[in-house]
Amino acid sequence: MSKIANPKLAAQGKLKIEWAESRMPVLMQIKKEFSKAKPLKGLTVAACLHVTKETAVLMRTLRAGGAKVVLCGSNPLSTQDDVAAQLAKEGISVFAWRGNHKQYYWCLKKALDFEPNITMDDGGDLIITIHSKRKELIRNMIGGSEETTTGVIRFKAMEKDGALKFPVIAVNDAQTKHLFDNRYGTGQSTIDGILRSTNVLFSGKNVVVSGYGWVGRGIAMRAKGMGAKVIVTETDAVKALEAAMDGYQVMSLNAAAKIGDIFITATGNKHILRREHFSKMKDGVILANAGHFNVEIKIPDMEKMKNGKRKIRENLEEYKLRNGKKLYLIGEGRLVNLTAAEGHPSEVMDMSFSNQALVASYLAERPKLRPRVYSVPKELDNLVAALKLKSMKYSIDTMSKEQKKYLETWQEGT
């Protein structure tokens, strides 16, 4: 059972998935091993992820491991309808289509109706819904995993308040996830989304990046590489200092609002760009969000300030303010790399989704973990890194016994 946009799109989706598989050797190796060991046999896995070709490879891997799999989209505009069609054709239950704004939570409800034992979230909506509206499902739950920073923050807050009722593994915090996916994946795909929507020249532009976490670092790095003059705004003194040491201008958002040409939010927080900033911005400014939810750019303020609005290009809206200036918003302020492009390259998602698959197997083997937020076990993180290096034809050195002893003991001295 599925609800998707158009089953006739399956053939194109199949080609996309095959392309992703050819670029995801680590996950394909895990799929091969899952097919033999069946670590998820008898379990139901519900995933609320961006429905992309890379996600399809993960879903196929989980099913190869013996799981019954159901998928819903974690963003109303990130679903690739052709991929959803192919997954549904293969018998995987999918509740997702591009533009399902009004039925977004209906899709979550349908996924949860399968009474999952393990959940996979990108933003935390499945687990939050279980805890708030579907508490009867908690008894079935072995645990969940979380793909992104925003969701991990939510679950750590739940743990602190004693509200978390089953274990959650923070896949986002794995080194083979955030150091690569957040930085290189988002850095490239965010620029990709902006270019597809505007075809604007980055060289010579003042690009303002709000937030200097791993996502902000990646965006700033790629924008600088394209010749932009990068400005970073931050609320964290250490991160702001790091941005300054990395060679970027650092200033308040009020100051940056006056000179920026392209603004990209990447904080995970709400109302970063708002009325006081919009009123100071130059005519023709481009606004994009790389944070998970569409709350970083305060769109209600833009709506109140507008004198008119029209769609200029695919995924690009022009807001004409009452002061005569025009601001251009990409993808309704939602994740620009997924609403206006295809998301991260498959090579990066290879590591992220390998972690997801291994974590699902890890949870299946440990059904009695106490409710808290866990890090991805170091051995799994290191395994993903080693497999990725091998697939890239790289080799590294191994410490000798003498070297290991030197690092692990104190008697030898200097």
Automatic annotation (TrEMBL):
Family matches, as PROSITE patterns: ADOHCYASE_2
GO biological process: L-homocysteine biosynthetic process; one-carbon metabolic process; S-adenosylmethionine cycle
Annotated cofactor note: Binds 1 NAD(+) per subunit.
Cofactor(s) the protein needs: NAD(+)
Segments forming domain S-adenosyl-L-homocysteine hydrolase NAD binding: 182-343
Sequence positions that bind substrate: 52, 122, 147, 177, 181
Segments traversing the membrane: none
Documented EC number(s): 3.13.2.1
Keyword Hydrolase applies: yes
Keywords: Cytoplasm, Hydrolase, NAD, One-carbon metabolism
GO molecular function: adenosylhomocysteinase activity
Cellular compartments per GO CC: cytosol
Localization: Cytoplasm
InterPro entries associated with the record: Adenosylhomocyst_ase-like_sf, Adenosylhomocysteinase-like, Ado_hCys_hydrolase_NAD-bd, NAD(P)-bd_dom_sf, S-Ado-L-homoCys_hydrolase_CS
SUPFAM superfamilies: Formate/glycerate dehydrogenase catalytic domain-like, NAD(P)-binding Rossmann-fold domains
Swiss-Prot/TrEMBL catalytic activity: S-adenosyl-L-homocysteine + H2O = L-homocysteine + adenosine
Residues holding NAD(+): 148-150, 182, 211-218, 234, 269, 290-292, 337, 344
Broad class of where this protein is predominantly found: cytoplasm
Similarity-based family: Belongs to the adenosylhomocysteinase family.
Function: May play a key role in the regulation of the intracellular concentration of adenosylhomocysteine.
Family matches, as HAMAP family: AdoHcyase (MF_00563)
Protein name: Adenosylhomocysteinase
Organism: Candidatus Naiadarchaeum limnaeum
